[in-house]
Amino acid sequence: MSRVCIVADRHRAALPTISGLVGELVERFDAEVHAAEDDSDELVASIAGAGPWDVVIGVGGGVTLDVAKLVALRSDDLRRATAPGRSSRVVLPDSARTARLALVPTTFGTGSEQSLSACLTTRGRKRLVSGTALGADVVLARPDLLASLDNEQVTEGLVEVALRLTTVYASGETAPLADTLTQAALRQVVELAPRLGCGERATSDLRTLASISAFSHSGWLSRDRPPMTTLPWIITTEASLAWSCTKAVAASLVMPAYWSVMPERDGRLGSHERLCELWAASLPSAATPAEALSTITGERLAQPSGEKFTRFSDDALAARITERWGAGLPFTGEASRDDVREVVAAALALGKTVAQTL
Question: Can you give the pTM of this predicted structure?
C-alpha cells in the first residue's frame, strides 16, 4: 500500500473548506498529516525523514507548497539543496523523482504550484532551490479555497503577482507576444484589486486571479527574456528577513524604490521606459508606476514599525545581498553593490516615512 504524506498549512488548516479537504484526503488515502508553518530545513528534513513517501500532497500557501516540493525530492537532491555554500541559489540536476507530488494552493501570488523552484530557510538565510524535480505531477486549483482569504492576504497576493509581471517585462527588449500577455495580465490585476480588496469574493474573480498567478510563472511570460531577471525579488526576499515582515510588504516598499533608481543606472536594473509602458497600458490614469502600485495596495498591508528599519543600514543589507546572490554569482545580473545599496536606501527611506504616518 502506498504511503501518502499530506503537508498542510498550519495557519489555515482550521478553515472549514480546507480542513474538510484534508479530512477527505486522509480518509481516502489513509494519509499521514504533517503541519507546516515555515520553510526551515529542519522541518523539511523531519517530514522527509518520516518517510519514505510514495505520494506527497501539499495543501496550503506558498510556504507549505514549497515544503511539500522539497519533501518529495530524492534524498541526495535534498542533501544538495541544504548543503553549506555561499550561494543562495541551488540548481538541482535533472533527475527522476521517486515520489508523486500533488499540490493544492489555498492562496495565490507565489505561484509555487506552477513553478520549478522552492524557497528554503537554512542556517538563518533564504535559499532558492530550482530544478525539474520540483515540478508537480498534479495541481488541484479550487477557487472556493481562496474565498476565505482576508483583504490583506488578497492584497499580498496581488503585490506578489505585480512584482513578477513588472520585473520580467522591464528586464528585456520588446517581445510582442510576451508583452501582450503581460499587459493583459496586469490590466486584469488592476481591475480586480478594488473589488477583492474591499471584500468581494466572486468565484469568477477568484478563478481569474488564480489563473494570472499561475501564468506569471509560465514560460510564455519569460519568453525571449534574459535568464537572470530576479533582482527585485532577491532584494525583496532579503529585506523581508531583515525587516521581519512578509515578502509582499517588503515588495510594496522595494518596488517603488527600485523603480525610482532605475533611470539613473544605465539599464543595469532594467528598462524604466518599458516599466512605464507596461503601467501605462494597464492603468493609464496613474502618473507614475509607484502611483499605479498604490491603487493595488491601498492601505491594506500591515507595515513594519520604524525600529525594524534600523536593524541593517543600507550598506550592510546591500553587502549581504551582494555576498549571497552576486559577487561572481550570476543572479544579480549587471547590477553592482552600489546599485543595490541605492535601492535599499530608497526603500528604507520610504519605509521610515510610511511608519511615521501610521
Answer: 0.89
